[in-house]
Structures are given as structure tokens and as C-alpha cells.
Amino acid sequence: ARVLEIARRLSRGEALGTEEEEEEEECQRHREPLEVFCKEDGALLCAICRESRAHRAHTVLPVPEIVREYKEQIQAGLQTLKDDRDKLLELREAEMRRNW
């Protein structure tokens, strides 16, 4: 959701790194920095939330590690889409030549 929001902002030409965005980097409940990501819930957590019963048994990773992991997944998906696009363009070109 955060990546999508950043993409939307960039597509609208809005600047990133505003004070509002800085405020979003802390836990709404505990006012602590968001340091880990809960894979089961797909949520950023502070140290206090991480130790709560709701997340104690969940897989949590440091934010830089999860960013790297999702970035790799997005890049792999993007490469697949680019390869598919290239194949479709080749097929289209071959079909146009055949019809010509």
C-alpha cells in the first residue's frame, strides 16, 4: 500500500519527503518508530507492537530487508512483463508482415 501511495504521488507530480510522511513513520498507537514488518499481517510494527500477543508468533523482518525482498519481487515481475511485451510485439510485427 505504501509503495502504491508513493507511485500515485509521483504520477501526480507531488513531492516526497513531506512532514506528513515523516509522521507516518511512527506507530499511531505507541508513537515509536516503525522498525519491522509483519509478513502475516503485511504491516509495519514498532518494537512494542512486535512483542504483543497479536504478532509474537508471526514472521517479522527488519524494514530494509523486506524492502530489498519486495524490490526484488517487483523487479522480477517487471522483467517478466517486459519479456511478455517483447514477445507480443514480435508476434504483432510478424502478423503485420504476413498480412502485408
From TrEMBL:
InterPro entries according to UniProt: TRIM/RBCC (IPR050143), Znf_B-box (IPR000315)
Q: PROSITE patterns, alphabetically? A: ZF_BBOX
Question: Keywords, A to Z?
Answer: Coiled coil, Metal-binding, Zinc, Zinc-finger
Q: Which Gene3D superfamilies does the annotation name? A: Classic Zinc Finger
B box-type domain ranges (all copies): 22-63
Query: Where does the record locate the signal sequence feature?
Result: none
List each coiled-coil range.
Answer: 71-98
- Note whether Iron occurs among the keywords: no
The molecular function terms in GO held by this entry are: zinc ion binding
Keyword presence, ATP-binding:
no
Q: Which Pfam families match?
A: zf-B_box (PF00643)
Q: What is this protein called?
A: TRI26 protein
Which species?
Pomatorhinus ruficollis
What does UniProt list as this organism's lineage? Eukaryota, Metazoa, Chordata, Craniata, Vertebrata
